[in-house]
Amino acid sequence: MTAETLAAPRSKASAPRNGGANLEKWGWLYMRISGVVLVVLIFGHLFVNLMVGDGISAIDFGFVGGKFATPFWQWWDVAMLWLGLIHGANGMRTITNDYVLNKTARKVLVSAIWIAVGLLIVLGTLVVFTFDPCNGVFEDGALWEACAELTGK
């Protein structure tokens, strides 16, 4: 392994070699901005779920169903999901780029990270926006009365 010297951060040698966008810079900036937004979203989520109303004892299936019935909380949770998953994937990409020396293995791992994140984002978003607390509730079930009241049946 040979020792390489790094160019000064603002020198022409440190600019992207292909003349395109500096993706590392945008990734770095995304991590800072998404981190701040995630702190607000997560602490807001925790405050509402744990401290408002009856606190943690009120969290049950009905509580989650009620939150997912409100567009505000749907978008709040989807924002947390998207920002958190992309933030985490970008961090894993950085770690992979730092520690995996084989170029092919690095490409395979980074691709696997982004495929997994894409799949989780699609599935998580579908769950949030298509959640129906009355799906699969039978007449003899504990939720039948609440669902009948919600649907007007």
From TrEMBL:
Organism domain of life: Bacteria
Signal peptide coordinates: none
A Pfam family per the record: Sdh_cyt
CDD domains (UniProt xref): SQR_TypeA_SdhD_like
InterPro entries according to UniProt: SQR/QFR_C/D, SuccDH_FuR_B_TM-su
Family matches, as Gene3D superfamilies: Fumarate reductase/succinate dehydrogenase, transmembrane subunit
Keyword Heme: yes
Location of this chain's protein in the cell: Membrane
Keywords attached to this entry: Heme, Iron, Membrane, Metal-binding, Transmembrane, Transmembrane helix
GO cellular component: membrane
Name of the protein in its database record: Succinate dehydrogenase hydrophobic membrane anchor subunit
Organism listed in the record: Microbacterium mitrae
Source species taxonomy: Bacteria, Bacillati, Actinomycetota, Actinomycetes, Micrococcales
